[in-house]
Task: inverse folding
């Protein structure tokens, strides 16, 4: 896993969105995952940005197209338009600012209003390196995640803690959902054409994914 | 008076630019990435082609500078301000052919670029910021900043969050002094127009305005005139509806002016708003090198068009 591959050389393309309040570290999570970079001097995101990275799961190459969005509330009208077709989401909050966790519920609603019900959602408590400033306990989020049936992980983009795992877990789960679906319709997932875009959440194929009981953390 | 002084300033400015740019001559041979500080203190990093483009712009601005000084010599100092400031009652009866000719000359001059030292003055006057400021007491900005000091609102919280994330690493903006100045401008504006309050993107615009205009107060009025008179309404208000309008207009223009590109992007199912949202909300301040931003500001932001309608409006 983790090998960087040529752009076109992939088996599945998954669209994943990064959402959450302003300043929780979405852009740094993205740059850590796609470029292994972290910047204390990062600029606030305006509108939407995106980056890609491919990972290998089983014998398949999954290419993640990750959309990073502006967090300020008034941008939601713009950013929610980009949720369409997303099959995964990382909903990020800042473990040192409780209010960013309180807003998770609204983000989740926003996400579910605009995407397919089967979207794989991972709750990400970022800035876990700031241990002395922690304002949201792991337990609090675990309970929330269980209730909301989302995955959950705490990360630090700064220390490169769990970032790889968080994205990989989301992608792997999406992959499982997709291959399970393929099996169910009697198709060998391996027989899917190379480079096929799997758009499980799109309007044309809204029923493509079976709901997966999905609380891992 | 101002003309002579500014010529000296400009000569000095260009000398320093030449010195700063010298490394690029060597690197052209060595084919290396070039890194230097631009006119507004930003570190520019690029390949030789990027530097060449920037040098071309600088050369054009330099040549234009000569035209400006020559015109100042023949038309008198600050002729460009009189051409426009007098719009309204004073000019209504006396707008003559020469004034119109001056306006046309000025339009052409601005299209080709304003010398950096004249930018604060010309932007301030031609954008309408000067006029806007003249309608309120002189102490307006100071009073406003004092009155809102220490107040905490959702806008101020977001502003505080964004200060260190606005052009981080800039030698002035990213200092306590720079943060404080930018904060005062943004917070003051957030109270002036509570519908706008603060919208991410304005931080970049205000920061660049501070660098170009040199004073907080002028930057504040420039921001005010941009949001209140120049840009499409509601660009930054609650649902950014003005920004959506901009995107639609841009898409229509793209189909009309560049149909092949538009068709190609459509075939790729690529939504141009993915890149243009930032252009319109930051007025290119985040995506263009600051010198190009300052160079193109007046013509690209329709400040020019606004100004151009004035002399004719006042004839009616």
Result:
């Amino acid at each position: 896993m983790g090998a960087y591959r040529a752009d076109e050389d992939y088996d599945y393309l998954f669209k994943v969105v990064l959402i959450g309040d302003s300043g929780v570290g979405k852009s740094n999570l993205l740059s850590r995952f796609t470029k292994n970079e972290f910047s204390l001097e990062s600029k606030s995101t305006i509108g939407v940005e995106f980056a890609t990275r491919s990972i290998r799961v089983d014998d398949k190459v999954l290419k993640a197209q990750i959309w990073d969005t502006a967090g300020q509330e008034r941008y939601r009208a713009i950013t929610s338009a980009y949720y369409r077709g997303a099959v995964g989401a990382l909903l990020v909050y800042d473990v040192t600012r409780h209010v960013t966790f309180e807003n998770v519920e609204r983000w989740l609603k926003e996400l579910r209003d605009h995407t397919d019900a089967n979207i794989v959602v991972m709750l990400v408590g970022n800035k876990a390196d700031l241990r002395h400033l922690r304002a949201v306990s792991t337990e609090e989020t675990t309970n929330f995640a269980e209730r909301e049936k989302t995955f959950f992980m705490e990360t630090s983009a700064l220390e490169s803690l769990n970032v790889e795992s968080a994205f990989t877990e989301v992608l792997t789960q999406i992959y499982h959902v997709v291959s399970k679906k393929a099996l169910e319709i009697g198709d060998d997932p391996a027989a899917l054409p190379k480079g096929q875009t799997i758009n499980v959440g799109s309007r044309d194929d809204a029923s493509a994914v079976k709901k997966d009981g999905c609380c891992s953390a | 008076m101002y003309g002579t002084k500014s010529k000296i300033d400009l000569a000095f400015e260009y000398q320093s630019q030449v010195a700063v740019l010298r490394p690029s001559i060597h690197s052209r041979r060595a084919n290396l990435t070039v890194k230097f500080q631009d006119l507004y203190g930003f570190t520019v990093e690029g390949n030789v082609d990027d530097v060449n483009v920037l040098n071309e712009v600088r050369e054009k601005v330099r040549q234009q500078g000569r035209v400006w000084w020559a015109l100042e010599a023949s038309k008198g100092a600050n002729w460009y301000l009189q051409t426009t400031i007098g719009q309204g009652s004073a000019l209504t009866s006396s707008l003559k052919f020469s004034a119109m000719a001056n306006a046309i000359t000025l339009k052409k001059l601005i299209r080709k670029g304003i010398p950096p030292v004249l930018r604060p003055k010309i932007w301030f006057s031609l954008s309408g910021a000067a006029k806007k400021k003249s309608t309120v007491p002189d102490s307006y900005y100071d009073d406003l900043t004092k009155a809102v000091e220490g107040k905490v609102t959702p806008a101020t919280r977001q502003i505080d969050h964004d200060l260190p994330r606005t052009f981080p690493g800039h030698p002035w903006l990213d200092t306590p002094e720079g943060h404080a100045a930018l904060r005062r401008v943004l917070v003051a504006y957030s109270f002036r127009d509570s519908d706008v309050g603060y919208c991410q993107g304005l931080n970049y615009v205000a920061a660049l305005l501070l660098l170009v205009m040199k004073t907080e107060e002028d930057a504040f009025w420039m921001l005010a005139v941009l949001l209140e008179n120049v840009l499409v309404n509601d660009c930054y208000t609650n649902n950014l509806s003005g920004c959506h309008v901009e995107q639609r207009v841009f898409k229509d223009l793209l189909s009309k002016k560049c149909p092949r590109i538009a068709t190609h992007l459509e075939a790729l199912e690529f939504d141009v708003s993915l890149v243009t949202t930032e252009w319109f909300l930051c007025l290119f301040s985040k995506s263009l090198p600051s010198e190009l931003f300052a160079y193109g500001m007046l013509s690209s932001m329709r400040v020019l068009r606004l100004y151009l309608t004035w002399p004719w409006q006042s004839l009616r």
Notes: Residues 12-185 of chain A form a domain with the Rossmann fold fold (CATH 3.40.50.300). The beta strands of chain A are 12-20, 48-57, 60-69, 88-94, 120-126, 151-154, 196-197. The CA atoms of residues 87 and 119 of chain A lie 5 Å apart.
